[in-house]
Amino acid sequence: MKRKFQNSQSRLPDNTAVKQQQLPAYRLQLSAKEILSGFFATGVFCLGIGIILLLSAKSIKEIEINYTEKCANCAKLRENAANFDRECTCSIPFYLSEAMRGNVYMYYKLYGFYQNLYRYILSRSNSQLVGTDIKDVTNCSPFKNSPDGTPIAPCGAIANSIFNDTIVLSYNLNLSIHIKVPMLRSGITWWTDKYIKFQNPGSHNLSSAFAGTTKPLYWPKPAYELDEEDPGNNGFINDDFIVWMRTAAFPTFKKLYRRLHRIQHFTEGLPAGSYSFLFLDFPVSRFQGEKSVVLSTLTWSGGSSLFLGLAYVVTGAVTWLAFFSMMAIHLRLKERKVFFLQ
Amino acid sequence: MKRKMYFSLSHFHITAKYSMWSFLPRYLYLQFSKAANAFFLFITILQQIPDVSPTGKYTTLLPLLIILVISGIKEIVEDYVSLLLVNALKPTALGVPWCTTCFIFLSQPQATCYVATSNLDGETNLKIRQALLETAEMQTEKQLSSLSGKIECEGPNCHFNNFIGTLYLNGKSPVPIGPDQVLLRGTQLKNTDWIFGIVVYTGFETKFMQNAVQSPLKRSKVEQVTNLQILVLFLLLLVMSLVSCVGAAFWNGKYGANTWYIGKKGNFGLNILVFIILYHNLIPISLLVTLEIVKYVQALFINWVNEDMHYRRNDVYAMARTSNLNEELGQVKYLFSDKTGTLTCNIMTFKKCTIAGIIYGDHPCLITESSEFSDPKLLENFEENHPTKEYIKEFLILLSVCHTVVPERDGNDISYQASSPDEAALVKGAKKLGFVFTVRTPYSVTIEAVSSTLCTFQGFINRKRMSVIVRTPTGRLWLYCKGADSVIYERLSEDSLFVEETLTHLESFAREGLRTLCIAYIDLTELEYQQWLMMYKEACTVVQDRAQCLEHCYDTIEKKFLLLGATAIEDRLQARVPETIANLLKANIRIWLLTGDKEETAVNIAYSCKLLSGQMPRIQLNANSLEATQQVIDQNCQDLGTLLGKENDLALIIDGKTLKHALHFEVKKNFLNLALSCRTVLCCRLSPLQKAEIVDLVKNHVRAITLAIGDGANDVGMIQTAHVGVGISGNEGMLATNNSDYAIAQFSYLEKLLLVHGAWNYFRVTKCVLYCFYKNVVLYVIELWFAFVNGFSGQILFERWCISLYNVIFTSLPTITLGIFEQCCSQESLLRYPQLYTISQTGDIFNIKVLWIQCINALVHSFILFWLPTKMLEHDTVLQGGYTIDHLFLGNFIYTVRSSIVSMIFFFLQFSHLAVWGSIMVWLVFFTVYSFFWPTIPISPEMTGQAWMVLVCPYFWLDFFLVPIVCLIQNVIWKSNTCRRTLLEVVREMESSRGQELDRSGDPLCFALSGGYAFSQAEQAVVSQEELIRSYDTSKSKTRRTFFPAFSESSFE
């Protein structure tokens, strides 16, 4: 018999483990003992973490003040276009029974604002925001251009609907002395946003860099005048603007507004006492949902939500429950199992 | 027209599937005719509509292109390899005298030639073909070139045994041409150096090709289930899209007025497209190509396999000729096996004999694999005047005289040409013992015995016996007869000796599966002979019922036999056949033997390969008409009663004639019921088409996988019909191999192919499919959950490229690893406990139900995967520095946690460090790098800084550990159900402990006797064996054509 395959030499199997399919294989081999001890250990782990999380969440101080109702008057006033320039302040006093130690963060929280809508999220121009092409408004529909055809900067639905209430926290040392709590408006954005993703168009003079564009429809002033105190915080790199542009995942969301500048009275955080919020500006109030302002401290793990801690505790408890019931079954079947195996 | 001219290589015309130019259009057509690919093309087109796609324009195009390129490369490689293989085969094909066209036999020195038809009908004996008298004398090319005329013959058809034609030679009267002048494609010329012929049919017109079943496209059951499930997923996709659209409508009604910030709204029609695009990834885009790759590698494993499947003698390796059916090998329930060349080597050896009550050749140490008869005791007894010396002499003379073998002297060596390999074995055996058959003339034979030269003769052959009347040089008359024990024993004289002893020996031979022949003689007187001769001559001249008269005439002299002994011929089985069959039976595979050979031979082989055992009751179906068949089948069904439909320890034996009726429309169902109730089914005398029909019957009426194995052209039909066709390669014909799905060199390799590769591949492919469904459902249903918080707007949660590359990059590695390296348990265990095969055979681990369970499991996991992080992040500040998060943060958070759970699920599939940690690492590295793209590389600005923020978030790591625990705890509880342990788990445990062995309850193999006998004569041939041997006169010059009338006065030399 002649060889059928001339190339049979090359068909000789190499004696490698791969080709011979003799790679060492690990298979999950669950013996009763291993499972039970695994369950037990998992239960311990989950309960432990859960309790730690609960405790640390409890240590957080948080206060939330809803100002939708209380400042409704101002909102109404502003709705009339004639009162565009009139100042309206509304003040909400509150009392902090315990001091908030450490870093204190001030958030604004919106209820029922869907920043996660598909057409909303798409409506922005990243190349504009990174400063490469100020007139690129391709993706900004339906807020691309003003009615006269000038491209909007920053364009798009997100930018257009920016949160622009002004909130001031003051500490009432006594009835007559109200100290404005020093707040930092920097360092509230992701580092990459401030230094990579958002860049002003390259020009010394910001207003000339924005030449040929117009302000968004609902904005009272153009982007390069957002921060009157700090000229470096204007244009696309304005912190408040950047924070807003990072679209929230849920219809109810908090966004970082200010953080406590720990100087003078506040080196330790916010001392206990009486405070009040002043809401200064309501440039536009088309928003129909609720708004509130939140003061909060943080711990290593995060905020004040108990959910994760509870989830861990429940998981741990369920694991232990499974552990005990399986133990019981195992002990009961042990004798029978011996028979089965033999 | 010498022989070389008709050795065309037409059956190696496997041309490449693609040419350089046709590749692209053909390939694209092939790919897009697959529903899944067409669907993704459709999605790609949809995405081009502005404002509709939430995932950008090219996110489906890219993975689709990747997949097309990968499977295109695979196609090219496969095409190239098959081309190489064909090229490798071509030169070797030349050496084999194969007829590849049908042609009409014109001339040859003896005007006759032998052909082996085992490839067509599985019969072991050679057939005789006879040249036309009118052309027989034309033996030079010059003579032939003078020949002119025409041939009229019937059109191409599939009947092997029929041929009608007429040869019109110029100036001569027309000559009829029958099947005896036709050499068919697929037959093999034997014992003949050359012949002249005229080609009548070529290529597809040949009867062989006409018999070929249209090669069907075979798809595996797993593939069908998978396709069905893809369809189900598509429906799920539509349902999800509709639900989302309705949700969007509701949401718009409720909150739509408040969304002043969005500027414009979508409509329902547009929304549904948005959602279809959003959820389209639910359909695993990479599944098909992953399976293709996995199966391709699996096929390579079969080709590469270790030396276990390497037949050293021929240097032939196993070869997977298709990779579509790899997992089907793990599900075989019915095995249809050919006999000749598949179970047996088609080599007969004279192994044992019993002479005068003494058994020879039974010495245990002398029985080795290939040893022929060699027992010094026989010659000792013969030479040393043992009391049985005379019997031994008569016995050996009989062996060397009573046969139809033609000797051919080649120098000093004599070779024998025999139509029946049994006879050749016996004559060779006698030669070895000193009784050399040297010359045959029409009425004499000469043997060079130890002392004398003997002469003859009068011979006649009947179905189950053959007799010759011999006159020795000393003038004594003998009648020698050999035949089946049943025939001989009923004709024994009362004075016959050794009857009991021989019977015992026959039983012991039969128990070993040897083919036995009884040997007997009569000492005739001159008077008896002359009387009989007269009677015989009369009978020969009778016009009516001549055959009957002759039969009667034979009977008058063939009586009062004196028993000499018996021979035992081994139809050698291939190595390890009985063990393989025993293991396959243990694996709950039903084996049906389908053969073209005679019933007795088939039964014999079934015994020797332990397919039949002595205690096994047999149901024999032999009926000549439809009514009779129906009746006998109904009767048997009734007898079985409640046992019908169950598996009984019964053997069903049926022949081709009865089967023809049994396959009739009305009888078919009952016949099948009966056959399925038997453990073993033997079908004899089947035509190739019948073989295919019976396979088809089982395939269509039983929901089980069938496998057909054969080596010859007569098996091609059933090989193509069965779900899986296996060809035995390495024998001379390549036809079976070329039409098979898998080619192996030995029957015993089937064990490894099925029990190891089949089972492995099944586990691999099914787990691979399940995993693909799991990972897709787990990820993309999250989009639906997210729709509940984003007002059904169609917003995606993940970054678009992360979605589109999920299948082709991030999860391809574990999927392919699973498909290639998964081992349910080790090779040794699978071979040791064939029962494990039933796991894959029943298909319980992969069906629609299992797929649904897996999908629901994935649904639950995706629920946990989405809502746990959502609830954690919803009202909380999770980043140090008080930074707030965005939707993509949530997306990346979930996506990364997903990588852990999708890997952890591997603990239940097959753990592999590469797959588990590899896939997590691939994602993390990609994630990190990807977050630094913008604005240097202008893609995905939204990812900027995400990796850093996610990976430093403590909540992320807490969730990263919590989600797998929550998700998998139920699976662990499910899995660790300690009271219900399967055999597989027990075996695995043993493997890991390498401890005690399972006790194997092996039945003591018992056999009982059967009367097997070796007598393979052509029965229906027009030129009978008897006539043929009369035509030979080997004492004369070879080229002389000798063809004598059937009978004349005996001549003595």
If you had to describe this structure to a student in words, what would you say it looks like?
The complex is a heterodimer of chains A (342) and B (1053). Chain A is α+β, with helices and mostly antiparallel strands. Chain A has helices spanning 8-11, 32-58, 72-79, 118-122, 126-129, 157-160, 191-197, 206-209, 239-245, 307-341, and strands at 62-66, 90-96, 100-101, 105-110, 167-172, 178-180, 183-184, 253-260, 269-270, 273-279, 291-296. In chain A, the strands form three sheets. Chain A has a five-stranded antiparallel β-sheet. Chain A has a four-stranded antiparallel β-sheet with strand order 2-10-5-6, with no helix packed on it. In chain A, strands 3-9 form a two-stranded antiparallel ribbon. In chain A, helix 2 (32-58) runs antiparallel to helix 10 (307-341). Chain B has 1053 residues and is α+β, with helices and mostly antiparallel strands. In chain B, strands 12-31-30-29-13-25-28-27-26 form a nine-stranded mixed β-sheet, with helices on both faces. Residues 1-16, 88-100, 365-370, 995-1023 and 1037-1053 of chain B have low confidence and may be disordered. The interface between A and B is large, with 105 and 104 residues.
Structure described in brief:
Chain A has 342 residues and is α+β, with helices and mostly antiparallel strands.
